[in-house]
Amino acid sequence: MDRASPRSGVETLRWRDGRLEMIDQRVLPAEVVYRDYATAAGVAEGIRSMVVRGAPAIGCAAAYGVALDALRLAGAPRAQFDGAMQEAFAVLARSRPTAVNLFWALKRMRTVSGAMSPASSASIAERLLAEAHEILAEDIRINRAMGRNGAALLADGMTVLTHCNAGALATAGYGTALGVIRSAIESGKRISVIADETRPFLQGARLTAWELAQDAIPVTLITDNMAGHLMKCGEIQAVVVGTDRVAANGDVANKIGTYMVAVLAHRHAIPFYVACPISTIDPDMPNGDAIPIEERDANEVTGYRGVRWAPEGIKVRNPAFDVTPAELVTALITERGVVASPDQSNIAALLKSAPPVDSA
Ligand code: MRU
User: How far is the CA of 116 from the centre of ligand 1 (A)?
Assistant: First the structure.
């Protein structure tokens, strides 16, 4: 079952000839190559090794990972199918710990197959693939709705700082933080972007700068330690970032360095916005202290692509995410609307509110 989806910009993931293809984000922008995946274990390795990254894109990839194993086992008796699917879910759940969208997507896929208990392996597999397609298409619709909601917060002529990559490459398309910027530009506003380099994996330098340049959106690259200086000089009027998990009290986990940007924005009275699909809110996580923070390989800090600059044997820390306390967040931008000064009660109200009519 192949199905085309409406997109903007680059195609991060796509379904082709019964396989999942993902653009290899480790080698962008030097090379634009797609890798193809036929198993859940393969997709899990693609997530772990950062072929695909960004919370919503990880969720989409995981959903396709489940569908791939289900399709491979479509001819198997149910007992064998069920056992193998448990392993598929488990291998995907172990791939990365911080982005809640991964677990959100797996739960959704598990609910779909659970609701079909008496069905054949083949019909469950077909239904799981349809659900993966729907998660991908829905992600783009959500990003566009979030973009429309957030665009009103950006005024004509603003320069907006973003950290990491929360764009089309981090989602099924259009982006969350970059979707807000795209939407403001589509509404006729002149917006330019300052992209933090985002050490150590360089998502800002390699991915955000490339993605925005592809769409001819004005972008200027800085190293992470330049943000404070530019804010002090009045060169930044707003910050918009994405998130990997928002706790029930509004604390925001995002790429390492985000907390530093939020503190700086507060110091300079610059609004700090977080573009956050509802699927990224974790109501079971009371506050940010409990969010699991991935610790990645020391090699990412001691050098890059085979060039080593740090002394051999040096002790290294490499937490991939940090948590920004809710009090530093001016507003969460979601597909259901903008939540100013997020806290326990307005987040609970948001989660209870009805989803918007799909207008994309
Ligand atoms: O380690 P990464 O590249 O997966 O981290 C990505 C981020 O931190 C993004 O800002 C976040 O996932 C939001 S993407 C819309």
Answer: 33
- Ligand 1 in reach of 243 Cβ (< 6 A): yes
Tokens found for residue 57:
């894109």
For 273-291, what is each residue's pLDDT tens digit? Answer: 999 999 999 999 999 999 9
Kindly tell me if the per-residue pLDDT of 360 is higher than 60.
no
The CB density around residue 263, as the number of other CB atoms within 10 Å, is 15
Q: Is 284 a catalytic residue?
A: no
Fold exhibited by the domain 2-142: Four Helix Bundle (Hemerythrin (Met), subunit A) (1.20.120)
Q: What is the model's pTM?
A: 0.96
* Higher per-residue confidence, 123 vs 357: 123
* pLDDT above 50 (res 1): no
State how far the alpha carbon of 338 is from the alpha carbons of 102, 334, 347, in Å.
24, 6, 11
CATH number assigned to the domain covering 147-352: 3.40.50.10470
The CA angle 198-241-146, to the nearest 5 degrees, is 145
**Mean pLDDT of the 255-280 span:** 98
Q: Which atom of ligand 1 is nearest to the CA of 163?
A: 10
Q: Residue ranges of the domains in the chain?
A: 2-142, 147-352
Q: Are 254 and 164 in contact (CB under 8 A)?
A: yes
> Rounded to the nearest whole angstrom, what is the distance from the C-alpha of residue 14 to the centroid of ligand 1?
19
Tokens of 136: 């991908």
Closest ligand 1 atom to Cα of 58 = 4
Residue in 268, 290, 272, 260 with CA at minimum distance from that of residue 326: 272
241, β-bridge pairs: 274
**Ligand 1 geometric centre to CA of 79 (Å):** 37
Could you give the angle at the alpha carbon of 103 between the alpha carbons of 101 and 109, nearest 5°?
A: 100
